[in-house]
Each structure stands twice: as structure tokens, then as C-alpha cells.
Amino acid sequence: MTQQRYQNGKQVIKRWDDVFKAVTAEPRRQLILSLSDAHPDETVPLPESAVNPNVPRDPAVLRQKLYHCHLPMLSDHEFITWDTEPLVAGRGPRFEEVAIVFESLQSSATDVPDSLVFGCQRLEQERQDGFDDPVAE
User: pTM score, two decimals?
Assistant: First the structure.
């Protein structure tokens, strides 16, 4: 029993480490959000779906970083699947493990510190919607 709890604990720690590693880079966060907005069986085009609309990047540079860094990392952890021609990404078998981080943030946007909201279009919108919703009051 103790050995099983130990193994389960190690597995859960590794999964959380994988999730938090996945969300440490902006292109990965944007891609996860884009996939969350898409139908579960759809793919999203890249690099467009990995761009922060407030801070556009050179598409050629982003495409290269996606191809060599971000997409392999997300794919290795089974958060996404991806193809090269055309360059697209879809939800992987463990996608929900990483998507829940953003769903949780969005559902509590009114409680997120201002320093993490302003400049993030999605959280700004969620916060505004929360303030406009009479049920939330």
C-alpha cells in the first residue's frame, strides 16, 4: 500500500511538472488556448494559432521555434499532436491536463491580480464578463 501511494505520488508530481513546463512559454500558452477554442477534433493552423495578438512576432521565426522547440515538447507530453504539411496542431490524449489550467484561470478572472490580467485579452474579457453578469454579483 505504501509503495503504491509512493508510486502514485511520483506520477502525479511528474504530471504536474509536465503541465507547468508546458505553460512556461507564450507560444505554447497561445496554442493551448487556440485548441481550447477549437472543436476537439479540429486542428489549428500554425504559426497563427500560437501568436499573442498583443505582441505579434515574425511568423518565420515563430514557425521555426514551434517546429524545433515548442511543438515537440508539447507532443512528447501528449498534450498535442501536430503535422508539418501544412503545419497544424490538434489536441493530444493528455490535452485536458494542460487546458484545465487556463479554464481555471478564466473562471476566476475576477480574482486574478490586475498585474496578470491587463494586457491579456482573454482574462480582460473574462473579467469584464464576470463584472457584467448579474448572477456573479
Answer: 0.83
